[in-house]
Design brief:
It is built from ten helices and ten strands. It is α+β, with helices and mostly antiparallel strands. The strands form two sheets. It has a six-stranded antiparallel sheet with strand order 1-2-9-4-7-10. It has a four-stranded antiparallel sheet with strand order 3-8-5-6, with no helix packed on it. Strand 1 and strand 2 form a beta hairpin. The protein has two domains: 145 residues, Sandwich (Jelly Rolls); 112 residues, Arc Repressor Mutant, subunit A (Orthogonal Bundle), CATH 1.10.10. It is globular, with a radius of gyration of 20 Å. InterPro entries: AraC-bd, AraC_XylS_family_regulators, Homeodomain-like_sf, HTH-like, HTH_AraC. One of its GO terms (molecular function) is sequence-specific DNA binding. It comes from Tistrella mobilis (strain KA081020-065).
Length: 265
């Protein structure tokens, strides 16, 4: 058995796990458990039936539902998972009741990218803005799965001026991690609406927009000859490793390789 805790936030835990044979005895959480099987077959008993979650599939366990876990095939299994306080999901749903997913195993095509992003780098800091984006996306995904939220995104006019104020605040000082409360204050929108509408307006989330502007700062610093460790801190990353992971996701290259290629021109 191997467990690795990731960076979390209030009401949100992230975990990677790998097991051989029987993983754990029947138990229940007071949170949503939303995960993706990374390898093998995850077998578990849930609401009176034995289920199997294959690699690439998602499992969604409702709070307070009994379940166990075991390998469903030789070679063991692994997964990455989020444990989310249902109070956060409820807040993001703006008065709608908590979703209940009758079939806990969900195919890959129904997985929202926000979950994949939330589980891709468990060590990435999860501040209150990132947490709001993650929880809001999960709430929408769960609502679509249980039918309480339409599959198509709602239309309507965007609060463009408010969203532009947020974008400008981030762009003017990407090295600073602005709080969700600060973005709410400048926009007049709650954090859940802000995360949804920002993506509709600009094609990306506030946190992702900030990361790309941080990488702009880091690239400029590297072109001036600044050391990678200093460039990372100057751009507001936690450390060089944090910057390197973000850089490779953004450009497909490590910072060192990018800097070497630029210097060679």
């Amino acid at each position: 058995m191997r467990l690795r805790m990731g960076a979390g936030a209030p009401g949100v835990e992230r975990l990677a796990a790998a097991f051989d044979g029987r993983a754990f005895a029947p138990h229940r959480h007071d949170t949503y458990a939303i995960g993706i099987t990374t390898h093998g077959v995850q077998s578990f008993r849930y609401r009176g039936a034995r289920r199997a979650c294959l690699a690439g599939q998602m499992h969604v366990l409702h709070p307070d539902e009994m379940h166990d876990g075991a390998a469903g095939a030789p070679g063991g299994f692994g997964y990455r998972i989020l444990y989310v306080d249902p109070a956060l999901i409820l807040a993001a749903l703006d008065g709608r009741p908590l979703p209940f997913i009758a079939d806990p195993v969900v195919g890959a095509t129904a997985i929202d990218p926000v979950l994949l992003q939330g589980l891709a780098d468990l060590d990435a800091p999860l501040g209150d803005i990132e947490s709001a984006e993650l929880v809001g996306g999960l709430a929408d995904m769960l609502g679509r799965l249980d039918g309480s939220i339409p599959q198509a995104a709602p239309g309507g006019r965007l609060p463009v001026a408010a969203l532009e104020r947020v974008r400008r605040l981030i762009a003017d000082d990407p090295a600073t991690r602005h709080t969700a409360a600060a973005l709410e204050a400048v926009s007049g929108l709650d954090r859940w609406t802000l995360a949804r509408q920002f993506r509709r307006a600009f094609g990306t989330s506030p946190s992702r927009y900030r990361t790309m502007r941080q990488l702009d700062l880091a690239r400029a610093a590297m072109r001036r000859g600044m050391a990678l460790s200093e460039a990372a801190l100057d751009a507001g990353f936690a450390d060089q490793s944090h910057m390197s992971r973000a850089f490779k996701r953004g450009y497909g290259l490590t910072p060192a390789r990018w800097a070497g290629a630029v210097a060679a021109r």
